[in-house]
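User: I'm new to structure prediction. If I give you an amino acid sequence, what do you actually give back? Let's try with this one:
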Amino acid sequence: MTVTPLVLFGRVVTFDERQPVVEDGALYIGSDEIIAQVSERSAPPPEGFADARRVETGGSIYPGLIDLHNHIAYNCLSLWASPTRTEAWARRDQWPDDEDYKPSISLPANALCQIAGEATLKYVETKAVIGGTTAIQGSAKVPYYDGWLVRNVERETFKKSEKVAIRQSVRELGGPKDFAKYRQAMDDGYAFIYHLAEGSDPGLVEEFDALKRGKCLHKRLVAIHSTALGEGDFSRWAPKGSIVWSPFSNLWLYGKTTAVDSAHEAGLRICLGADWSPSGTKNLLGELKVADICNRALMGKAFSDEQLCRMATTNPAEAIGWKDKLGRLKQGLRGDVLVCASRESDPYRNLIAATEADVLFVAVNGYPFYGTTQLMQAAGATDAESIQVGRQRRSIVLVYPGYPQADMTWKQVTGELASARADPRRHEQQRDGARPGGTEVRIQPEKPWDAKVKIAGPTLENVALPEPDPLTHNPAFFDNVKKRGFHGGILDDLKAYYG
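Assistant: Good question. You get back a string of structure tokens that encode the predicted 3D arrangement of the chain. For your 499 residues, that looks like this:
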């Protein structure tokens, strides 16, 4: 894609310590996709911007959000709770054995990924970007996919100018060879994203002890969840790495969440992740609100609003070695941008309070991908189409020159998913080899208990595919939150953010 030099005017929230907020600011993104200048509106522009697109956002400009824990293959599915379970789960290997899990989660996720992979990817990326996400983790099992609408953390090479810098494992490491492999990767400069001690069972601390014995407690370790760990464990975590916090999913499944206040006090970096839609929020903007609820209700306001917002911006960028590329609005970094309506005087409280309706504009590498029709036109978006997001009409770009396998409009996306749902077997037969881009896009759910599930031929007739999970946090979502899960009512407060 060709990026036209772009200037965005508004309140610029940089997360750069030298100039954290520019109240009446200008953000310049060049044709090289790099931020050329952040300054007061009245300051002279840098060279090369005489013919730039000039966009009056009327809002607050932030770095694009980085979701550091997700499983995108499942995000067409809605919030799930076992219809028979009466007490919280203690470990992550328990709920996959629930009798309702396979028909409600495993089978439909695998079927959609197999027979409508491209449409599924397009849909779940759209769910992410309408909440301001510009990079997302949890796409490792998607062949040749380096991100269409948002960056794929596991495969991002920044246009192949550098190597992929991430290693990850959803499964528990099995022995000395595993530990040696990932320890060497971290020593070689790779970040290692790993699910650790997920649940409330004290026995899960052994996973932490195994990492310590295997010398994998590394500054480049990015540990997802760590829910079973306590202050004593965090204090002996050395050298210090990062924790990815998914409070909604923790509370929904286990009735408790990670003691990130203690982890922070012990020197660990805290990042946010929305997990997946069967037990999480719909996007990282939603998860930021749950973090705010937990900070007030469970942690005595241990974190400031700015610190909470850094969990979705600067902290994840630093955790995976992208500090010199993303996470701040700063000269020399990539032009990943989120613009929200300015409804709060404090810029950090404004981001926490923002909902999907407040997201006015999202760009990756300075290219406009999503926003209001007015701002998208002003930014020079090409191939933009209309999309209904809750009660708002927005514009989105889903067709990209040079990416034939990404050549699918929103109408085609929803039509494809509807066809798959109506008759999975017939849809598979019609779609096999039919895409003009060539090879079918096939995703593989990466959770260990689902990764080996195979659905083919007549067995598709017995899979019930639900309607795609709605894009926004709607009334049905909040009704489900109030009636189900093991959060003890803490998550009921989420509804208040959405009016």
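You can read the tokens as a compact description of the fold. Here is one thing that stands out. The longest helix spans residues 101-115.
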